[in-house]
Design a protein that fits this description.
The chain is mainly alpha-helical. The chain is built from seven helices and no strands. Helix 4 packs parallel to helix 6 and helix 6 runs antiparallel to helix 7.
Amino acid sequence: MKGKNDKKMKKHWVKEYFSIPNLMGYFRILMLPVFLVLYTRADSLKAYMTAFAVLAVSMLTDCLDGRIARRFNMVTDFGKALDPAADKLTQGALMLAAAIRHPLMGILAVIFLLKEGYMMLMGLYLKKKKRVWNGAQWYGKVCTIVLDAGLFVLLIFPNLPAGAVGAVIFIMAAFMLFSLVKYIRFHVRIIRDSHGE
């Protein structure tokens, strides 16, 4: 009986943490330091293209892992946490790469850390209180799109004029702060509604 239970637990553990989509998520995360090393050492167009090819492979797995998980019934609770974590790590890696050439990125990085730190703590608090919501809100999705687009512009065009760089960083920071304020108001409403029950 114990052997059967051990076998069942092992099977569940493998399915939860080592499904194909989750392995793709691990691979995606492991590619980020490779991209950073290649990008920071790049001194020619070919070297930059190699760095972006690695990033493209990492991002391709992001497009595929969710589809594979849903198509082959491999969705796991761990995978639901791994995917957004990999998204944030990717954004952080892109931010770090851009900061090498643009010191103003430090301001954006601070806002990013504040926002993501708040989201993590509030998520844990609401989970403890058994208050959850389904997926990101529209302003969170818009913020992600603007942030990704802005970072790609700064990375693909490393020699942009200082004024253009400042404008791109300002736009990203503004959307991030807007998203943070909207999420704070959203969470306050959830907490108030729960107290009213």
